[in-house]
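Agenda item 2: pyridoxal-5'-phosphate complex prediction
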Amino acid sequence: MSNMQIPFVDLKLRFEDEKAELLACVERVLSKGHLVMTPEVAELERAVEDYTGARHCIGLNSGTDGLLMALWAAGIRKEDEVITTPVSFVATVGAIVHVGATPVFADVRRDQNIDPAEIEKKITPRTKAIMPVHWTGRMADMDAILNIAERHGLMVVEDSAQSMGSRADGKHGGTFGFAGAISCHPLKNLNAVGDGGMMLTDNDEAAEKVRLYRNHGLESRDSVAIFGINSRLDVLNAEVLKFRLTKLDDIIARRRHNANLYRELIEAPEVFIPEEKDGASDSYVMFIVQAERRDALKAHLAGNGIESLIYYGTPLHLHKAAQRFGYKKGDMPEAERQCDLVLALPHHQHLTEDQVIYVAEHVNGFYGAA
Ligand SMILES: Cc1ncc(COP(=O)(O)O)c(C=O)c1O
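Presented output:
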């Protein structure tokens, strides 16, 4: 196959694809003359409630704010411990730290998601919550996690930043526990034209608190119920997200098709691709394989015009910022092992079958499996 250039993602292509609709969103919003908390935000929230089955969706500035507010609304405070995974984006742990609580790490399974058996070992009298992450949009083992939470009287707050459109037994990511956070960062499946996020919850009181908190605690223009912050979802983003939500299922179907094709075509036994769990339907925000001699493979792919990325080379417990929690190398053996293997292959809805075949051939070729 002749040489191709395959970028990891291609947001410019997405713009070309949606240019007419996006410009119409800009026109609709700007022509109204109001740009803060107009009805577009509530319309998006209702549409996301319909899509996810959550009783409440609250539009925010980012997924990180969604995590923070979910923990805050769950009553997680100083002295509390929250058990979470070392395999995630830093915001998972940052949110726990910023409500004053202590993150406690539990190692992951081979599929990169938190291992329920490890959670159980980390429970102390101070544990208040479990925060699983549906990493890459792959659903964590929610049955087992909810079972542990129930037996120990713990809350579950889901980092569902990557799982818009992911379901387990028909239930949407972010709707299993007390609350969940969704990210609409440009690299997510439901993406804004910049930062954006949402919190999902079935709890009326939590929803009310977060609705107030994201808007300075304002009940009305001249009445402040609580001191809050400004984490209002942009109106333009709300309008774009409303439009993109109508395309989400199609985007996920295309991503799932490409993921299945990768699975079928990558034959090298040196490359491990986690399976989808029974009953799960994952959204594949990323397609991460675990590959032997990963760095050499990455260089080989780059030499053939294929961009790939390492998500991530350092587990969260070993970052400088986490030193004060006292973890050391060897504490999370599976997560640490995976950090040397993980490689995200190009994976987006505009990737053609030919491009997937080209990438898979070069992966196989590297290991001599072609
Ligand atoms: C697992 C995970 N948690 C939290 C976040 C934070 O979301 P945001 O970038 O919207 O603040 C992200 C997104 O980058 C993420 O991937």
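Discussion summary: The chain has a mean pLDDT of 97.
Owner for follow-up: CH.
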